[in-house]
Specification:
With 297 residues, this protein is mostly helical. Helices cover 83% and strands 0% of the residues. 48% of the residues are buried.
């Protein structure tokens, strides 16, 4: 029989796959909407789908909307704002010559999540989990840091800063879910997805309206392809949050590194790109780290 304690792992893998599809769709929108506009699509067009998910959960479970305690809003606002900040740092990194190096530093996120989760949520990290996190993260960094790349202070700060913001976002959203203390983790996770996307949609819409209203017009005009990107974004968020409700943020974000394996598989089997020895070593380290994490869990 299926062990329900493994549900968080299944949720994480589904979320990583959906996020991979969303990222591919967003890349296609970048030429039409710009980087900020394409990024906003995940929030603005994801919110209606998240709302539909919430209504479906309410009907299926026969439950009303929860009444969040005051601390809930602090956690969720932290999660929403730090996710936007992380995205902004990534956008800055895209304009930097050392983006590959920045990406490697961003993927130190699981290590930072483990630290922040321990400090702010008391999420325990066993020695085996710590080893799994370090091994998998080393694998990603090994794949990202190609020979001849060099790091400077700017790229280091951009990457570590983005990784820290993503880590704080994961901890913030998990903290919000746990603070609801609901008997149904599905309701807690789904409600938090809706609140988070609403906050982010309003904030980014206000920013674009003040800074570049033409982008908002372009987003509305590109509603057809944006709908799919929004749906996949909402689907990914739904499963990320379900995983956060059941497991530590460090475990979820470490297992999420399978996204790198998905991208590598696409490059190898779809685009027929050869795998280098360095990439093969990175893949092996990620697989070992993930297997160790699942065994520890």
């Amino acid at each position: 029989m299926f062990d329900p304690s493994w549900l968080w792992a299944a949720f994480t893998i589904v979320a990583a796959a959906a996020q991979t599809v969303r990222n591919a769709t967003q890349r296609g929108l970048t030429t039409r909407l710009g980087t900020v506009g394409a990024t906003h699509v995940r929030f603005l067009f994801g919110f209606p789908f998240a709302l539909i998910f919430l209504i479906a959960v309410m009907v299926a479970l026969g439950q009303e909307l929860p009444r969040p305690p005051l601390i809930y809003w602090a956690w969720v606002i932290d999660g929403a704002l730090t996710q936007i900040a992380a995205t902004a740092l990534m956008l800055a990194a895209m304009n930097d010559r050392s983006f590959v190096v920045v990406y490697a530093y961003i993927k130190t996120e699981p290590v930072q999540v483990a630290l922040f989760g321990l400090v702010f949520l008391g999420d325990a990290v066993t020695p085996v989990m710590a080893a799994a996190i370090l091994i998998a993260t080393t694998g990603v960094v090994t794949m990202a840091l190609k020979p001849g790349t060099s790091a400077d202070l700017k790229s280091t700060l951009l990457g570590l800063g983005a990784g820290a913001m993503f880590a704080l976002s994961a901890v913030g959203f998990r903290g919000g879910i746990l603070s609801l203390a609901l008997p149904s983790y599905v309701m807690a996770a789904t409600f938090t997805v809706v609140v988070g996307l609403l906050l982010q949609s309003v904030l980014l819409s206000l920013y674009l309206w003040l800074r570049n209203p033409d982008v908002l017009v372009s987003i509305v005009r590109a509603w057809r392809p944006s709908l799919f990107a929004g749906f996949m974004g909402a689907l990914a968020s739904q499963f990320w949050f379900l995983a956060f409700a059941l497991a530590t943020a460090a475990s979820v974000r470490t297992l999420a590194l399978v996204e790198v394996l998905f991208a590598q598989a696409i490059a190898r089997f779809v685009f027929k790109q050869a795998t280098t020895a360095r990439e093969a070593i990175g893949v092996v380290l990620i697989v070992v780290g993930v297997m160790l994490l699942l065994w520890a869990g």
